[in-house]
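Structure in, sequence out. Go:
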């Protein structure tokens, strides 16, 4: 039976790159995002490169019930979920410096970056442990490693995610379930040090090698105002 990867918070940058990398290796691909229009575009782009075994499901990755419904739909379509990848993005309008951090603008990113990750893990971890195999993969911002002053509120979440994933890796590795994360500092853009296809390839190789729990990718930060491409990973 072909293996299946479910990509939660699938977008046009990392989501598409991860779907393409795993899809070219013969994986079924499940895509979960809030808007069907975006999902349809991703499915069409995957078809253009010969990846046709794709299921799209709308869902908010901060909502446990919607995550459960989406993952159940993907499993019903393909028979299993062997890998989950989680990398929802936040735009620059959500970034705050330390002096502007409030409970509200810190808790919303935390709910997306950490809360959604925990809810997704809780949906699939039990079955992966039962099988003695599986993968939980994450791409998150470099503020998890080193504080980035304009992203003070986001760094609270990313550093929390890193702590959670480090502990999760230690607990699940002996049970055959791999937890791996790549932390990205810089503007994700094709042809640079933070090319999404290169990051996806690194993630695929980490999952197969299972010899380390995390890696760090750095590249140029955006100019003032953030113009010129997708936002950096916060």
């Amino acid at each position: 039976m072909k293996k299946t990867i479910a990509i939660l918070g699938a977008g046009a940058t990392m989501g598409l790159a991860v779907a393409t990398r795993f899809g070219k290796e013969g994986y079924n691909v499940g895509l979960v995002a809030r808007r069907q229009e975006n999902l349809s575009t991703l499915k069409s782009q995957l078809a253009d490169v010969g990846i046709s075994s794709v299921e799209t499901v709308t869902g908010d990755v901060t909502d446990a019930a919607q995550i459960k419904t989406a993952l159940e739909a993907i499993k019903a379509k393909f028979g299993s979920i062997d890998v989950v990848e989680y990398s929802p993005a936040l735009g620059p309008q959500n970034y705050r410096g330390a002096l502007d951090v409030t409970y509200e603008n810190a808790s919303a990113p935390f709910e997306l970056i950490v809360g959604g990750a925990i809810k997704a893990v809780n949906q699939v971890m039990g079955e992966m442990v039962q099988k003695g195999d599986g993968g939980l993969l994450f791409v998150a911002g470099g503020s998890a490693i080193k504080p980035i002053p304009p992203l003070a509120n986001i760094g609270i979440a990313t550093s929390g995610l890193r702590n959670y994933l480090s502990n999760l890796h230690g607990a699940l590795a002996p049970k055959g379930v791999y937890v791996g994360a790549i932390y990205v500092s810089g503007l994700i853009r094709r042809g640079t040090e933070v090319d999404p296809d290169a990051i996806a390839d690194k993630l695929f190789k980490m999952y197969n090698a299972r010899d380390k729990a995390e890696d760090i990718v750095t590249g140029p930060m955006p100019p003032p105002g953030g113009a010129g491409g997708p936002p950096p990973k916060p």
